[in-house]
């Protein structure tokens, strides 16, 4: 026998002797009613077990620590399996031992199996109420006292089994445990890489809990069953969001989880048509969380994200929509034909774009869905305009997120192109009488010169499309961009509310777009012998000349002169940005001077 084998055997025997001594002391303390003594012996036992698990976790490839781990777990399992063991001793051990042995779950497959067997013994022999409390406390300790691999998955599976053993007050007991389960699931899944096998085990445990809740629902009737179904609905939507964030990059693997989770959707009475517009979600939360604190409600913080993502996954895969017993094609047709519902959907989809840790491939699918319900929509000849104010805030917020997605964060040109197309489609869906106001609001709240420039270019495109229709009297000015609001928009950039000319070179993109917009409007109105915007009115020409263009010329001239003196690379870059501004600015000045002369 080798020295290493002898050493390992000796070490394992030492651990077994210590375990046996602590367990005997615990047993005697319980039998004698000396609870202080039993608690002290359990503390020593837990400390001894923790030292072994810590060593095993820190050196997973070390054969000796692995042997020690398996030996200790096997002994504990054998001890608890003894039919003559006093129930009071098992109850005493159940409060601390599960947390200690669960840390071995990530050491090896054999250790994981032994841990599960030990947990199953506690579930079989102890009160469900007590075990829910023990497992909840264990899950709540994740990230505080332990972050051992496999730890959370062990207790998720344990909770799923305990739920099936509950005999009464099912909703109340599950309701207490679910927030802790969800918080631990979120924390543990966000700690793991999307390629980690432990992530799959984690979500298998989470889905096992959903299976157990559904199985319990089917045994109940009336209000008791309805309340538990509501809880299951919220739980499923939250888990869909978490699994999408954690594993969305691995669509094929993530899909299998989402298909299973989507099978609960019809059982909970959830419909894609309601989920995508957020209908009933707040009511569902209020039914489950009635009278609860904000801390409790926070555990469902991703429910609306999950509602949208459940539909997006249905858009991605027919397998998902079939599991949910929904038809995405019919849903899209309904949204395309009903503007108020479409706007509500647009307003809710923003939460997906705004979810920073959601994988980009899922945001891309969300953009596809958004384009599918907004592109080439015929403007309805109804009183929908009157409803615009009800949705303005949500739509505006969605547009801001879409622009941010487009300019600031999209990782490739394809996504930027899709986001821009979605932006234009959503804007086109807003009634013309409100669209310009909407875009002005977006420009005012824009924090990027590039985003401002893109919005102004969208305005110019609308003007170009509207002008022929306006000339042919196919539309009236109230339903067109050709009104005095255009000059207000130009002034917003060329003479900011903060005062003075715009800051250059920081605002070069926005200034160039505003100048091009002004030039286009001035040329179009002059050659077309119209004055819809008031741009060729003498007072407006003089205002533009004296308050916008000349002050801007002074700034541009001074900056170019100063930059030429520097002659460095930075100066060259600034010049590249200022040259087109200078060119268009002088063209605008010439046009205004000519127009003023003609108005005399």
TrEMBL record:
GO molecular function, one term: ubiquitin-protein transferase inhibitor activity
InterPro entries for the chain: Glomulin/ALF4 (IPR019516), YAP-bd/ALF4/Glomulin (IPR013877)
Superkingdom assignment: Eukaryota
Gene Ontology, cellular component aspect: cytoplasm
Protein name: Aberrant root formation protein 4
Organism from which the protein derives: Saponaria officinalis
Lineage of the organism: Eukaryota, Viridiplantae, Streptophyta, Embryophyta, Tracheophyta
């Amino acid at each position: 026998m080798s020295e290493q084998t002898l050493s390992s055997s000796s070490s394992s025997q030492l651990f077994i002797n210590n375990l046996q001594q602590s367990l005997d002391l615990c047993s005697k303390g319980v039998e004698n009613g000396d609870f202080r003594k039993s608690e002290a012996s359990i503390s020593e036992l837990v400390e001894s077990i923790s030292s072994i698990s810590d060593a095993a976790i820190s050196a997973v490839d070390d054969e000796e620590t692995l042997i020690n781990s398996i030996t200790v777990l096997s002994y504990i399992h054998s001890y608890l399996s003894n039919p003559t063991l006093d129930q009071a001793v098992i109850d005493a051990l159940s409060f601390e031992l599960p947390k200690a042995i669960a840390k071995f779950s990530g050491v090896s497959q054999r250790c994981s199996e032994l841990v599960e067997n030990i947990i199953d013994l506690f579930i079989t022999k102890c009160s469900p109420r007590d075990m829910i409390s023990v497992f909840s406390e264990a899950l709540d300790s994740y990230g505080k006292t332990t972050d051992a691999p496999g730890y959370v998955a062990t207790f998720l599976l344990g909770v799923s089994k305990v739920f099936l053993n509950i005999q009464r007050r099912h909703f109340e007991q599950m309701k207490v445990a679910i927030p802790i389960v969800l918080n631990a699931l979120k924390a543990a899944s966000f700690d793991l890489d999307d390629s980690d096998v432990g992530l799959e085990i984690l979500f298998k445990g989470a889905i096992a809990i959903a299976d157990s809740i559904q199985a319990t629902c089917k045994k109940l009737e009336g209000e008791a069953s309805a309340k538990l179904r509501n809880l299951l609905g919220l739980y499923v939507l939250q888990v869909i969001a978490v699994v999408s964030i954690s594993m969305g990059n691995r669509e094929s693997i993530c899909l299998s989880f989402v298909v299973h989770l989507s099978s609960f959707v019809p059982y909970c009475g959830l419909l894609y048509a309601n989920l995508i517009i957020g209908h009933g979600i707040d009511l569902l939360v209020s039914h489950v969380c009635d009278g609860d604190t904000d801390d409790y409600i926070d555990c469902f913080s991703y429910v609306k994200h999950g509602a949208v993502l459940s539909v997006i996954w249905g858009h991605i895969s027919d397998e998902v929509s079939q599991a949910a017993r929904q038809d995405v094609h019919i849903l899209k047709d309904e949204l395309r034909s009903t503007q108020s519902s479409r706007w509500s959907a647009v307003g809710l989809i923003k939460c997906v774009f705004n979810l920073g840790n959601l994988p980009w491939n899922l945001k891309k699918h969300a953009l596809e869905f958004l384009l599918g319900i907004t592109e080439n929509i015929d403007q309805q000849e109804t009183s929908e305009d009157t409803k615009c104010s009800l949705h303005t805030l949500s739509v505006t917020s969605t547009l801001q997120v879409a622009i941010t997605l487009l300019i600031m964060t999209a990782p490739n040109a394809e996504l930027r192109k899709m986001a821009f197309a979605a932006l234009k489609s959503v804007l086109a869906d807003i009634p013309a009488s409100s669209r310009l106001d909407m875009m002005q609001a977006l420009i005012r709240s824009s924090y990027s010169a590039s985003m401002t420039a893109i919005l102004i270019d969208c305005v110019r495109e609308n003007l170009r499309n509207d002008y022929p229709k306006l000339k042919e009297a196919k539309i009236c000015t109230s339903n067109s961009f050709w009104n005095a609001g255009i000059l207000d928009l130009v002034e917003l950039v060329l003479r900011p509310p903060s005062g003075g000319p715009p800051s250059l070179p920081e605002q070069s993109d926005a200034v160039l777009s505003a100048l091009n917009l002004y030039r286009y409007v001035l040329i179009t109105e002059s050659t077309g012998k119209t004055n819809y915007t008031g741009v060729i009115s003498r007072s407006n020409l003089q205002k533009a000349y004296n308050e916008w263009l000349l002050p801007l010329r002074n700034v541009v001239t001074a900056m170019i002169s100063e930059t030429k003196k520097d002659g460095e690379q930075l100066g060259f870059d600034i010049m590249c940005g200022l040259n087109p501004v200078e060119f268009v600015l002088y063209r605008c000045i010439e046009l205004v001077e000519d127009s003023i002369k003609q108005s005399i």
